[in-house]
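Comment thread on ticket #2218

A.B. wrote:
> Attaching the input chain for the structure job we discussed in standup.
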Amino acid sequence: MIRFIAVGFVMMVMARSFATDYLAGIGVGVGSGNIWNRNKLYVAAREDRKRFPFIDSEGNEVDNPYVFYLVANTPTAQLLGFLISSASQQQNLDSCLPQNDDENSPIHGLPLWRIDLRLLRWSAFDWEKVLLSHPYGGHSLLIRGDWLVRELTDSDLSAETSIDGVAAFDRLFYGKNRPKTEAELFAFFGVFDDLPQVVIDSKSPVAISQMRWIEYLDRKEHGDMWYTRDSKRLDSFTSPIERPEGDFIHDGSEYIIGIRKHSLKTNQVCRMQVYALGQPIKDEEGNIIRTDLVHEAPVDLVKDYLAVRGITAIRDQISCINCHVEGIRPMDSSAFVNLVNVLGVVPGRRTQEELEELQRKHYASLSTAQKRAQEDYELAVKLHTGWTVEQMTQMLRTVVDGYDANLTIADAAIELGTTVDHLKEVLINHSRLEHNKQAFSAAGSLLGLVGGDTCPRALFEEQYPKLDALLKGK
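C.D. wrote:
> Ran it. Output below, let me know if you need it in another format.
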């Protein structure tokens, strides 16, 4: 079970370089005399995995292919417990939490957290596919925790860096049944035969038009689904107020699927949220043929005003997690009439009685469902992390922003498990070789580390295998 830590420590700003503070937080000193002892962590993980014997099809005891270890400080491990559970169809949330509480375990007291793919209901094949994108090689048994945070939350980047264009979240959560269209998404969650309740939200903080058509589907004991239909501009063909029966043309959708989880330890039930984005495919006349699932929404349709990772485009899952701190964002019906009057969408076309009827129709019974969804999500975050939703989202930003930060020579040395002096020597000597000049011109920033410059994370990860081999004398 993950040990809960004080909120003040969770929210501590990881100053100057997250890499330095992160590794210091997992027991790694900073400076030329102190390095990250990866071999020590590897030996401990190997010894711990022996406690979970596995017998192959021929009756031989072999290394357990389902047990792996995350290298993370405690707050990152708590965050990962929530994110891993979000990406798992395992309904018992206790089985989703990374483990490090057994005092008899070789990993106890170390920054190592055990996960078991079988408990998570992740296939070993899919997990190995995810690890092909892990840039910090050497031991596939050990996975860098902050890398996995980014991998599970930024599906657009994850898909871009994977070998086959499939994001890690999609691969692990959906498996071979990964939906590619809205229809397949609805079929996967069993909502295609349900009749939705509808609300027109007139104060959307992300929609460019500030108006969203939102449908709610109650999946009973399985959870629920909220999804939007968003338009880039409002006119007689695209406005939900102009066409309150729903027969309007839209340009994109967001889906929030509530997934029921329970804790056997506390005997409580909560609801996680899974997110997806949809892009309508239209014919030459503008009619929608189907809606494909995408990982990034157009910025002229919806916009991430928090600019997570410095990007204003909304991406799943990271933009959605950061935005939906209330679970389902509050929807305001009081502005309904004012919105009609101000925007002039339907000037003089409806009587007061008709407007009131529209309000009753579009907002009936949804306030209770929204409140329940919010409370269930707050409980889910608390059961997984011990935090509030706001604290969890802040921790997510801290980890991801820190991971994205440029590296100094000290950071690079720590992450490579060497000293600053040794790394400088290797960078200088290797760059002098004629056949390495091209590689290290791209690595000009790496050479710049010697002179006090910083290096982008992406470049460091690209060159990591070569640098790691050079430092080992290969």
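A.B. wrote:
> Thanks. Noting for the ticket: The longest strand covers residues 268-282.
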